[in-house]
Amino acid sequence: MEILLSEDLYRNPHQLSFCGKIILFTCKRDSTTNERSELIFRRLSYERENNRFLKAADGTAVISRKRSAHVDIVRCKGALDVQKRLAAPFILVTKTNEKGESFQYKLLTLSSSNRLEPCIEFKLPYQMKEKVYIMQGPTVLWTHGDCVYYTSLQAGEVRQLPIQWSHSVVGELPLYKGQVFVLGLQSNSEQPSNSQTLGCFTEDGQLFDGSVILPHPYISITQCMLVLSADRVDDVLECTAVAATSNQQLVYFENGIVKDTCQLPFKEPEHIQEANTGRNGCLFVVFFHQGHVCAIRKDTFQVASVWSGVSSVHVDDFLGCGTDQMLLVFNNQPLEKFLITDLCGISYSHGQDTEVANTSPPPPENYLLTLQALESRLQSGLTVLQELQREERVKDRVLRQSVQTLTNVVSEREPVLTQNEQEGLIALWDCDDESKDEGLDDKMQDMPAVSSKPQTDKLWHHIIEDRMVVGVILTTDISAPVTSVSLSILTETGLNSTPAVIQTQSQVFWLPAPCPSSSSSSSSASMFSEPEAKRSKQHNASRPNDLNTCRLAVTAVTKLTPLLNSGCVKCRVMLHYIQRCNAFASVSNSTPAFLDCGQIDLDIHDFQSQLLKTLELKTGETREDLLSLLAVLDRWVFHIDSPDYSLRAIDSWIQKTVGCKKLEASPQYLLLNSSGPSALMLFRWHQITPFKGELSVHSSHLQMIQFLHSLLAYLPATCSIHPVKRTRDEGTSQIFALALEKEVVSLKQCVSELLSEEDEEGAKRKTTGNEEKLETRSVEGLQRCREVWQRDVERSKMRLSPLVDVVRYRKLIQGMCEVQLKGDLAALLETQRTLVS
């Protein structure tokens, strides 16, 4: 980078901010030929040490080679490229002939390799003057008379919206929510007072009621607007937006209803930007026509600060700290006088009076410690307040449920309570027992928190077509983990009959518990929400909900054919496991154990499957339904790699196009609920990077092929989908085995390389020794033979403990450490898997 000098600056350039950098654009003629017109750009990045903007990159592009043509910049802005699914800076330039009869426009994009590439070209018989917008798509939109025109890559030509507007406002929905739209009053010369408020999407020309975004009275006075959030609920658009009006007001709307207003200090607002300053909240930055700027806090909706004499204002992360700052440029010579601030402690200025405050000595240490102490007290007080509010809501809900129950009893009505309501009720006669238990806490401190033997919390079963799923919820002590967990089913058809063991297929899932080990479970573990506690209490180590406990769900699937021998069958469920004394004990030294989990009664006349009919509930039944589907459905895992396009829209595509909905009990799973249990499909999308992800599909083989066909049609051609060839339990074991094999091979190769030089020297000596003809008939010959044998003995000792060069030995140790680290990581993953396998 080089320091940006004042003589290097362009005259009156167009500026935009992108990825924490400022990009300057300007047009000028070639100084050598004075014929061709060039578009020049320069990227600038801020350096804190020098408190200046430094040049990061620059370049030029030839726009016209004719001397008579006049080239000018219309507008530049960063927008989303829908095809590449990435944001990029765009610039719109116009080329006018000598007579001024036609105007040719070009939309260029600046690539990541600092090249100006053409994007859209079109011609107009008139010149764009006001209200020219570059929106997502990219889409170029402008007004001419009472008509609104636009062009984009998808359109391929200049198109006119089907409605004439007497007054229009342009906006766009946030990323992955929709597209560019225009709101306005429809022109009606006969009855101007009855003009309608209509909205129109530019992509498909679809009309909608504009009052869902802005009420009718605000359309005619709105100067600019910004949509904050948008979503479609039952084909109805719900959004929040802010709009700056000609009455010097900033208005906050929710679904077309005014929620708050703020009086603006200046007139003629031009555009609004949102700055996210992290934990200090969000700001609305409003730029006005005469170079005024004001910042309004989103939480209080009050003016926080104002500035005047501003030529341009930008919102971006210029300091690279993860939050947004405002950059205010105060003169036409770019970045000679500027201010970077977030109104929350960050302030860097150059060429301004506020620069003196930046160079002042830092505050004393006791002042900073006082601020930190006050901030900690404020955070702790806020935490206590939130806990009190949560307990107040729980008590209020319990009181309402209790009153409703008493009313039903008095009215002789049978109370109908859901599972959530039952979990929220408190038995009044438990209070005395609880007080006694709390009084004995001090006497029971020496007793273990939980038994080392697994505890059965719940036993349940489901019938899914021709199979039965049996599940057990277990609570185990993490200090003495269990491994090789499985379920077996024993049938009891009569009192004198011998129990028969039915062949089953078991699976194990982690359930969330307040223990650190649950966060380190395998990626295939299913995460479910805990039922809400009946009563808020302080943590006590003697209760089962201790931090040293973990919860598991074990399922077993079996066919119904062996069970259909009688009208009613009783089945005993047995849990098989291996108890280890601690987390690092060997499995081979442990003895197998079993646990009687209880009995289930199977009635063949009541086979009704009601799986996942209420997606919005977080009840135990919903959790059991999901576990049953995961146990029955086949599972495929696909790795999706997209080198050129972002994959952030796959989750929304599965929900909207495929028609899936999220499960409230486990939000990472998406369910496609069709008729019949066999038609159900479960999806789980894991975003690894913006360009890589892993998709798990739980369904039948035919449904998986149909879904994969639709997914391939949606994804770009450059994307690649690879199936992950692994079973439920083979992944970590195979990785561990390969790591051990690589460690052994690496050790063998490294030692061989160290000894190769010694072997070569020994071979040379051996060859030289063979060339000597030893004479054993004389005393001197025997003495010579004895000396050769002694040298061979010493050489053999050296080969057993050779002297190795220090540099080569260090390389050996470094290489072996790296290989052993990978082996240790694979062993850790295998150990975590065997805790529940």
TrEMBL record:
N-terminal signal peptide: none
Name of the protein described by the UniProt record: Fanconi anemia group B protein
InterPro entries: FANCB
A GO-annotated cellular component: Fanconi anaemia nuclear complex
Bias (Basic and acidic residues) ranges: 762-777
Biological process annotations from GO: interstrand cross-link repair; negative regulation of double-strand break repair via homologous recombination; positive regulation of double-strand break repair via homologous recombination; replication-born double-strand break repair via sister chromatid exchange
Region named Disordered: 521-544, 758-777
